[in-house]
Amino acid sequence: MISLNIEMITSVIKLTFFILYFLCMLLLIVYNWLYLTHTFRANKNIGLNPPEKIRHLVRTSTYIALFNAILLVFFLVMGYY
Amino acid sequence: MITKGVWDTFLTIEGERLLLVKRKHPFVVLFPIALTSLVTTIFVIGSFFFFTTLVHSFPLFIVTTLLLISLALSLITKNIIDWYFHMYILTTKKILEISYNPLSSRLMNDVLLDHVNCTEVDLRTQGFFGEILGIGDVVVTFDRPTKQEEFVFRDVKEGHSLGRFLTKQLIDRHTEMMRMQPIWFRGYQKGAQT
After folding, report:
1. Is B71 left (phi over 0), alpha (psi -120 to 50) or beta?
2. Which residues is B91 bridged to in the sheet?
3. pLDDT at B68 (0 to 100)
4. Does A35 contact chain B (CB < 8 Å)?
5. DSSP-H helix ranges across B94-191
6. Which residues are bridge partners to B100 per DSSP?
7. A28:B77 CB<8 A
8. Do A62 and B67 form a contact (C-beta atoms < 8 A)?
9. How far is CA A47 from the centre of its chain?
């Protein structure tokens, strides 16, 4: 009975982690998109252009977050947690 | 003294010439990047132990690692951009500070040199790294009719040479102009009626 309870608590903790991570990744993707848009608006705002490498850096972060979100859904659907 | 780049957009007054374009010392951006990388590594190691000993879930460890890397990359980008878009510009007509932090703040602080009188150029260096790497603040004080205003070049590289350069450009030049054009009397020519 006790071991069953511990298992239940552990799986609830894992599920909570998955949901929190998923929300974090969605927020991060939105933030990255907004940040990139505003960074490249700098030319209009202060008359300067950002370096092109910044675009790659932000995109890499977004792609990792996207891949992570897909991986997370995959783990949740297949029950690998 | 002029950082590489296209700065024509800042020359807005007729006959204006660029004298100086400077960013903060690269250490100012390298230190937070190193710190972010270190903290991320510590968190990844911590999560490895957490997800292998307490909550037994290897998929969660993978997801956590990827999330941490993604967050670290975003933070590093923010640091680089904040450093890149913060600069000090000196022209023959004005002194300008520009700072743009996307999604948080924008600052444009300019002083027209014709309207003020530069009275002091001070240098201050603080801390071990400041002394070793030559990072310092150069404070330019302007006398305005109503108040005194300070313009600070914060955490710049080679503060000593910048201080000397600013003294030459702002104080010596002004003194020279004052000597050429006295304001308290007009010189009279010999034989002219008084």
Report:
1. alpha
2. B18
3. 94
4. yes
5. 127-133, 159-166, 173-180
6. B106
7. no
8. no
9. 32
Cβ(B7)–Cβ(A49) below 8 Å:
no
- What type of residue sits at position B62? I
> In chain B, what residues touch A60 (CB-CB under 8 Å)?
73
B25 is written with which tokens? 């010392």
What is the C-alpha separation between B68 and A65, in angstroms, rounded?
Answer: 10
Query: What is the pTM for the complete model shown?
Result: 0.82
Q: How far lies A44's CA from each of A38, A50, B9, B105, B108, in Å? A: 10, 12, 11, 15, 14
Apex B86 CA angle, B81 and B89, nearest 5: 145
Between CA B4 and CA A62 the distance in angstroms is: 30
Place of tokens 């292998």: B52
What is this model's ipTM?
A: 0.87
Give the model confidence (pLDDT) of B56-102 as tens digits.
888 889 999 999 999 999 999 999 999 999 999 988 888 889 999 98
Strands B135-143 and B18-23: unpaired
Is-contact B65 B44, C-beta < 8 A?
yes
Residues of chain A found within 8 Å of residue B100, distances taken between Cβ atoms = 42, 45-46, 48
